[in-house]
Amino acid sequence: MKDIKAMWTGRVLSVLENMAGTAGIDSKGFSKSLSVGKPPDSNMGDLSYPLFPFAKDFRKAPPALAGEIAGELGGEEAGVSVAGPYLNIRIDRAAAISRLLENIESFGDKWGSGDELTGRKVMVEFSSPNTNKPLHLGHLRNDILGESCARIIASRGADVQKVNLVNDRGVHICKSMLAYQKFGNGESPESLGVKSDRFVGDLYVKFSQWAKEDKSADGQAQTMLQAWEAGDEEVRKLWLTMNNWALDGINATYERTGVSFDRIYRESETYLMGKDEVLKGLDSGVLYKDKDGSVRIDMEDIGLDTKVLLRSDGTSVYITQDLGTAISRHEEWPFDQLIYV
Predict the structure, then answer these.
(1) Mean pLDDT of the chain
(2) How far apart (Å, rounded) are the C-alpha atoms in residues 254 and 269?
(3) Neighbours of 212 (CB within 10 A)
(4) Reading across the β-sheet that carries 47-50, which strands appear in turn?
(5) Per-residue model confidence as pLDDT tens digits over 307-320
(6) Which of 74, 81, 93, 285 gives a 20 to 30 Å CA spacing to 331?
(7) 261 Cβ partners below 8 Å, 6+ apart?
(8) Cα(336)–Cα(124) distance, rounded to whole angstroms?
(9) Quick check: 272 pLDDT over 80?
(10) CA distance 321 to 266
(11) pLDDT of res. 70
(12) What is the distance between the alpha carbons of residues 263 and 331, in angstroms, rounded to a whole number?
């Protein structure tokens, strides 16, 4: 569209300059005076040039001037029309698409590439699955956007690193684990012949159904999370098994859809770092402990809510892990820009 607009602007300007030369008018400042916009109604065309700035030079009413230019450019047959003082252009979309395809074919894989981002390091985070269920349609959308952003930015010269933060710990993970203990009957994805991430996801659904009947279910999941954070051997063993099931299925989906990453971070590897940073903030007075025992940050002065960084039982929340992950990333690969998709 940019090239088409430039082409038409050049043609309109050329006609104006030729008309000025014939009439003995100085056209020196015409290029600065010629502007382009869009008609108020798409039925009137795609581009619109107001002729007010040239009326005084030509000593003609803008509609008359627009009519003369339209005639020089081929009139209605060429997609050029007049609407009062405006010269409107209707773009031949078929021809424009044909030129675009020819351009793409001519440049091949180099089409759209450039070097304006050379020397810039950009990290793009996307997908971020939970290991308690398979990827869903929202993940597919996110993966498409993430891969596209990374490839486009790289094509403009940037050094790009695609990263994925796997949410592999937390109470939601414990819910699938607890459901397996209660309803799994020792089965596995192999024994049932189902995709491994779907197997784990079905257990998460089973937990939700059970929690509607047993009000203690959520509390049991929270207790399991505490045991996990304390390093309970049996809980950790089950967690590793089910995480591997989920990740095997998720990775199969990535391979099938052509999605890849340069670096994969796991919350289970960074949450302690985030927890340490929160405790440092508490000691320094940046953060505070609420009456319920949770650690919080008050961001009212910048127009945001108060956020919980550690629950009252000492377990981490998402933002705790994000702190640890952000610090770890920048230490490993000092980026100029981080894009969250």
Answers:
(1) 93
(2) 22
(3) 8
(4) 47-50, 86-89, 80-83
(5) 999 999 888 887 88
(6) 285
(7) 127, 162, 163, 164
(8) 11
(9) no
(10) 9
(11) 95
(12) 14
User: Once rounded to an integer, what is the mean pLDDT over residues 93-122?
Assistant: 90
Domains of the chain, CATH where assigned = 2-94 (3.30.1360.70), 164-340 (3.40.50.620)
Q: Work out the average pLDDT over 217-225.
A: 95
Identify whether the C-beta of residue 274 lies closer than 8 Å to the C-beta of residue 316.
yes
Q: Are strands 295-297 and 47-50 parallel, antiparallel or unpaired?
A: unpaired
Q: Which residue has the tokens 């402990």?
A: 289
Yes or no: say if 160 and 122 are a contact pair by the CB < 8 Å rule: yes
d(C-alpha 4, C-alpha 277), whole Å:
54
pTM equals 0.70
DSSP bridge pairs for 86: 50, 83
- Of 296, 294, 323, 324, the residue nearest 311 (C-alpha): 294
Q: Is the dihedral of CA 51, 54, 58, 60 positive or negative?
A: positive
φ/ψ (deg, to 5) at 266: -120, 135
Instruction: Please give the Cα distance from 267 to 165 (Å, whole number).
Output: 7
Which tokens go with 234? 């049996």
Residues 133-151: pLDDT tens digits?
Answer: 999 999 999 999 999 999 9
